[in-house]
Design goal:
Blueprint: H1 9-24, H2 28-49, H3 54-64, H4 69-97, H5 101-121, H6 125-142, H7 148-175, H8 181-204, H9 215-235, H10 237-241, H11 243-260, H12 274-291, H13 299-302, H14 311-327, H15 352-373, H16 381-388, H17 394-422, H18 429-447, H19 454-468, H20 479-501, H21 508-527, H22 536-553, H23 565-596, H24 603-626, H25 640-652, H26 656-677
Helix pairs in contact: 2-3, 2-7, 2-18, 3-7, 3-19, 4-5, 4-6, 4-7, 5-6, 5-15, 6-7, 6-16, 8-9, 8-11, 8-12, 9-11, 9-22, 11-14, 12-14, 14-23, 15-16, 15-20, 16-20, 17-19, 17-20, 17-22, 18-19, 21-22, 21-23, 21-24, 22-23, 23-26, 24-25, 25-26
Length: 698
C-alpha cells in the first residue's frame, strides 16, 4: 500500500494531478530552467540599469520561452514586430491628439477595435494583441502628467522593456540548445515503438501485455506526433518537401501504437514466431527513423504472410508492409507545399468577429471610466484584464478569468508574505534574486504544463513582479498589492457580464454538432466506406478537439440556463467523450480482426451486423442534434445474428486456430456492442425510449 492511500481525498487528488502533469509533460523541467535563467539575467540587468517595466520584461520571457526552438524563435520575432507596431501606434495617437482628450479616446478606441478584430481573424493574432494592449495601456499614463515628452519617453521605455528580454531569451535558448522539433518527433516515435516492443515481448512469452497503452494514452500519443510533425515541417525544409512521407511514417507509428492497446488479453493461440517477427520489424523501423534511411520489411515478417494472425498482429503487419511500400516510393510522389492564408476564410463575412471586438472595447471603456471616475489609478489593471480575459467563447473567457484570478491571488499572496517578512531584511541584488527566482520557477513550471493551467503560471509570476519588482529598491507599500487584485477582480466581472450579455458565444450547441460528426465518422469507419472512410488519426484528433471544447463549456456562466441543466449537460458530455474513446478503440480492434480473418470468409457475413451498429451510432448522433434536452439511449444491437452467421464457418473449420479466430471476432464484436450500449441518455421525456435498429439476417 502506498503512502498516498493515507492522504485526505483532496490532497490525494492533487498529488495524482501533479503526477499526471509530470508524466504528460516530461520536458517542462528544461523549459523551467531556461525561464529561470533568463529571468535572473533580466532582473539583474533591469535593476542595475534602471530599466522600468520589469514585470513586462518578465512576462515577455515567459511567453517567448517555448518547448522547442521553432516556437521560441517564431514568437520572439512576432513579439518584436508587434511591440514595434504597438509603440509606434501609441506615439502617433499621443502626437496628434494629446490636447484633445475626446479625440484621443476615440482614436485609441478605433485602433483598439481594429486590433482586437485582427486578433480574431489573422493568423498572427499575437501581434495585434500587443498593439491593442499597448495602445490602451498608454492611456493610463496620459492623466498622470501634462508633459507629452514624458509620455513619449514612457512609450519608448515600453519598447525597450519588451525587446531586450527577447534578445536575452533567444540567446539563452540558443546556448542551452532547446529541443529541435525533428529530434522531439523522432524521440516520441521511438518511445512509442519501445512501448510496443515491451508489449510484444510479453505476448511472445505467453503472458498478458499488462502495460499495453490505454485509450487515453493512444489518443495523447497520436496528438503529440501530429503536433510535432507540424512543428518539424515549419523548422526543416526537408520535412516540408517530404511532408507526405513523414506523415505516412507518423501514421504508421500511431497505427502500431493503437494496435498495441489491443494486446492486453492477447496471450494464447498465436502462430509460432509471429510476435518475434513483428518485434524485429519494429526494431528495423526504429533504426530507419534514427538513420533517416528507407524502411525495408525484414524477411522474418515476410515469412508470416500465410499465417492467420490475430487482429492486432495483422494490423501491425499490414501497417509495416504499407509503410515499406510508401518508403520505396519516388520523390515525385511528394506533394508541394501549400501556402497558408493570412486571414480566416470568413473574415469579411462573419459578423461574430466585429461583435467580439465591440464587446471587448465596451468592457475596456467601462473599466476606463470606472477608474478615472473614482480617481483610483492603482486599479488601472481593470482595463488590461478586460482585454486579457477576452476569448472567442463564453467558456474560454470564464476559463481564462478563473486562471487569471487564481494565479493573481497566489502571486499576490506570495508577494504580500515577502513584503511583510522578507523584504525588510534584504538590501542587495542577491537577496532579491533569492526571493524572486523560486517564484519564477513555480510560475514557469505551471506555465509549461497543459493549457488547463498554463496561464495561471504566467499570472503567478506577473502579479508577483508587479507587486515587488516595479521599483528600484525595497518596497513596503501593501496598497499596490490590494489595488491590483481589486482591478483584476473588477475587470473579470465587467468582461464576464459584457460577453455573456451581448452576443454571447456559447459553445454548447457547437459541441453537440461536433460530437454528432464524430459519431457519424465512427459509424462510417465501422462500415468501411472505402475512400470516404475517415482516417483513424483524424477521428482521434477530432475527439481531442471535442474534449477541449467540453472543458470550456464546463465553465461557461450558467445563469442563462435552468438550474442544474448546465451541470447535467456537462456530466453527460464528459461521459459521452469517455465512452466515445472506448468505442473508437473497440472499432479499431474489430476492424483489425475483421481484416485479419478475411481469408476465412468471415468479413462478408459480418458486414450486416457492422452496418446495424453503424446505423445505431448514426441514429444516436441524429438524436443528439435534433433533441438536445432528451437524448435516447442507443439501439441495442443483438449478437444473435452474427453468432448464427459464424456458426457454420466455425463448425466447418477443421483447425483450432480458425475456431479461435471466430471466437476472437465475436469477442471484439461483443465488446463493441457493449461500449455502444453505454453511451448516455439524458432528459425526462424520451430518455427511457431506446432507439430501435433492425439487424439484417442476410
Amino acid at each position: 500500500m502506498s503512502v498516498a492511500e493515507y492522504l485526505p481525498d483532496g490532497l490525494r487528488r492533487f498529488v495524482r494531478f501533479l503526477r499526471d502533469e509530470i508524466q504528460a509533460y516530461p520536458g517542462r523541467a528544461n523549459v523551467m530552467l531556461r525561464c529561470v535563467l533568463a529571468s535572473a539575467l533580466v532582473i539583474t540587468a533591469s535593476m542595475a540599469l534602471q530599466v522600468p517595466f520589469l514585470a513586462v520584461s518578465l512576462i515577455v520571457v515567459f511567453y517567448v520561452t517555448q518547448s522547442n526552438v521553432v516556437m521560441t524563435r517564431l514568437i520572439g520575432v512576432l513579439f518584436m514586430l508587434g511591440s514595434t507596431l504597438a509603440v509606434g501606434s501609441a506615439i502617433l495617437v499621443i502626437k496628434f491628439t494629446y490636447d484633445f482628450p475626446l479625440l484621443r479616446i476615440l482614436l485609441a478606441a478605433a485602433l483598439f477595435f481594429a486590433s482586437v478584430y485582427m486578433m480574431r481573424v489573422a493568423k498572427i493574432g499575437v501581434v495585434f494583441f500587443l498593439v491593442a494592449l499597448v495602445v490602451i495601456y498608454v492611456q493610463t499614463f496620459v492623466d498622470l502628467t501634462d508633459q507629452p515628452e514624458v509620455l513619449v519617453r514612457i512609450a519608448l521605455w515600453v519598447w525597450v522593456a519588451t525587446n531586450y528580454p527577447i534578445v536575452v531569451t533567444l540567446l539563452i535558448n540558443t546556448l542551452l540548445l532547446p529541443a529541435e522539433p525533428v529530434r522531439q518527433l523522432e524521440s516520441t516515435m521511438l518511445g512509442q515503438l519501445k512501448a510496443l516492443d515491451a508489449c510484444l515481448a510479453d505476448v511472445e512469452r505467453g503472458a498478458p501485455a499488462a502495460d499495453a497503452p490505454r485509450a487515453r494514452d493512444i489518443q495523447s500519443g497520436m496528438l503529440a506526433l501530429q503536433k510535432l510533425l507540424r512543428f518539424s515541417t515549419m523548422r526543416d525544409a526537408g520535412y516540408r518537401r517530404r511532408r507526405a512521407f513523414h506523415l505516412a511514417r507518423v501514421t504508421t507509428v500511431s497505427r502500431l501504437y493503437a494496435a498495441a492497446g489491443q494486446l492486453r488479453n492477447m496471450a494464447t493461440g498465436l502462430p509460432d514466431g509471429s510476435a518475434s517477427a513483428l518485434r524485429e520489424a519494429c526494431d528495423e523501423l526504429g533504426r530507419s527513423i534514427r538513420s533517416g534511411e528507407r524502411f525495408v520489411v525484414p524477411d522474418a515478417l515476410n515469412g508470416t504472410a500465410d499465417l492467420a494472425l490475430p487482429g492486432p498482429l495483422e494490423e501491425m503487419r499490414n501497417g509495416l508492409n504499407a509503410f515499406a511500400h510508401r518508403s520505396a516510393a519516388p520523390e515525385s510522389m511528394e506533394s508541394k507545399e501549400e501556402k497558408e492564408r493570412l486571414l480566416v476564410p470568413d473574415a469579411s463575412t462573419n459578423p461574430v468577429y466585429a461583435q467580439f471586438a465591440l464587446k471587448t472595447l465596451l468592457a475596456v471603456m467601462i473599466g476606463y471610466v470606472l477608474y478615472i471616475g473614482c480617481d483610483w489609478q492603482g486599479i488601472h489593471t481593470v482595463m488590461l484584464t478586460c482585454l486579457i480575459v477576452a476569448q472567442p467563447s463564453l467558456g474560454a473567457t470564464a476559463q481564462r478569468s478563473l486562471l487569471r484570478i487564481g494565479g493573481a491571488a497566489v502571486g499576490s499572496g506570495i508577494a504580500l508574505a515577502m513584503v511583510v517578512w522578507v523584504v525588510p531584511h534584504i538590501d542587495d541584488i542577491v537577496g532579491l534574486l533569492m526571493i524572486s527566482l523560486p517564484v519564477m520557477a513555480l510560475g514557469a513550471w505551471v506555465a509549461a504544463g497543459s493549457e488547463r493551467i498554463s496561464y495561471a503560471g504566467v499570472q503567478i509570476m506577473f502579479t508577483f513582479a508587479l507587486s515587488l519588482l516595479e521599483h528600484f529598491g525595497p518596497t513596503t507599500d501593501l496598497t499596490e498589492i490590494r489595488d491590483r487584485m481589486i482591478g483584476i477582480v473588477l475587470g473579470v466581472g465587467i468582461s464576464t457580464i459584457v460577453h455573456a450579455t451581448l452576443w454571447p458565444e456559447a459553445e454548447g450547441e457547437a459541441l453537440r454538432q461536433r460530437l454528432a460528426r464524430l459519431l457519424h465518422g465512427l459509424a462510417g469507419r465501422l462500415r468501411g466506406l472505402g475512400a470516404d472512410e475517415p482516417a483513424p488519426v483524424a477521428l482521434w484528433v477530432e475527439l481531442g478537439d471535442c474534449e477541449a471544447v467540453a472543458a470550456r463549456v464546463a465553465v461557461e456562466p450558467g445563469w442563462r440556463m435552468a438550474e442544474g441543466q448546465s451541470e447535467g449537460f456537462t456530466m453527460h458530455v464528459q461521459t459521452m467523450l469517455a465512452q466515445t474513446r472506448e468505442i473508437l478503440l473497440a472499432v479499431d480492434a474489430l476492424e483489425a480482426e475483421r481484416r485479419a480473418q478475411a481469408r476465412e470468409g468471415v468479413a462478408p457475413e459480418a458486414s450486416a451486423w457492422r452496418e446495424a451498429v453503424g446505423a445505431s451510432l448514426d441514429a444516436y448522433a441524429v438524436d443528439l442534434t435534433e433533441h438536445a434536452h432528451a437524448v435516447r439511449s442507443p439501439a441495442a444491437v443483438s449478437l444473435d445474428a452474427l453468432v448464427t452467421q459464424l456458426a457454420p464457418n466455425a463448425a466447418q473449420s477443421p483447425s483450432d486456430t480458425a475456431r479461435l479466430a471466430h471466437q476472437r471476432l465475436l469477442d471484439r464484436a461483443r465488446n463493441l456492442a457493449y461500449q455502444v450500449s453505454r453511451l448516455p441518455a439524458w432528459g425526462t421525456a424520451r430518455a427511457d425510449m431506446p432507439l430501435t435498429i433492425e439487424v439484417s439476417q442476410a
